[in-house]
Amino acid sequence: MSKVSRRKFVATTAAAGAGLTIVPRHVLGRGFQAPSDTVNIATVGVGGMGRSNTTRLMSQNIVAFCDVDDALMESSIQSIQKAAAAEPQQQSGQGRTPRPVSKAQQAANERRAAVDGRAALKRFVNEQLPKLQKYRDYRDMLDKQKDIDAIVVATPDHMHAAIATAAMDLGKHVYVQKPLCWSVEEARFLAKKAKDKPKVVTQMGNQGHSSDGARTGYEYIRGGAIGDVREVHVWTNRPLGFWPQGIPRPAPMPADAPAAPRRWDGRVVNTKIAAALAGNYPVPDTLAWNLFLGVAPEVEYHPIYHPMNWRGWVDWGQGALGDMGAHLVDHPFWALNLGYPTVIETLSTPFNGACFPAATTTYYTFPARGSMLRQPGQRRR
Q1: Which of 35, 161, 212, 371 is deepest in the core (most CB within 10 A)?
Q2: Most confident listed range (71-80, 81-90, 261-270, 329-338)
């Protein structure tokens, strides 16, 4: 090894240092993230899953929050602050037999950089939150905040396609909560948009699909652990336990409505329910109702719509099937390689066109496919 003078060594390393603006993760080791690997993230729709997704991303740099409801945004921020300040709790699962880990999940865990979630949460509160930019309108955010690399879209379903499209057109990576969007046409449009933007990374959020239990179940079924599966039943209590469905839109009693109708049929009862729900509810100062409506038809504000209950209304949500179907129906589609059904039949309680029915049963029939062509009783090859 030739001798190098101190002056030459300092000059050489200084020049090299000036050129090394990117430090690869492998230089730092597993579990350490280089600043050059950190992504600037903005979340649109900060309540519920938006807050949950953002909390999971706090190893990155959270630069902006956007929500049409200031009160909801502030509540989410306070929840994050409270979680960061709380004492760490001992895991309740200690002493239990560990759940089986699928091969796919084990391989993913080995590739994934270790993240100290609690440290990331505290870092967000102490370092990022004071600099966090807040917006009501996603268009203002995308126009003014030039440092955004990626966005999380966790708004009501009817705005997913509009926000994701605007972000992709600006070259932003996009993570959209399920269901992907409000209509089949929007889903096809977004798929084409993502294909036309090869440098933009896109993903639909479905944490159920990514769970270890889902992967383990997939491997059991694909491995034939429970034999041939010919019928699958999926159910959810979402409309009953979480938000109302099958109700009329709030509306004043018609002027020509009889005070004492002769027949209390469905039409009369629904009219009286609508009148009972109607009222003079001013839009809260903290809520930009016009921004909530976005691309949807004009509807007067009512507290039965927002927050959360929007899922039960056709203008903004997908009802129980759109909310939980993306999780629950996903597993048999994945494990059984179902593809497209040949027959779909739906039975439901009355549907008024505005609010999804109180109860629905949908039957899907799928054709034989791939290696699943054998007749009953035929052995697996």
Answers
A1: 161
A2: 71-80
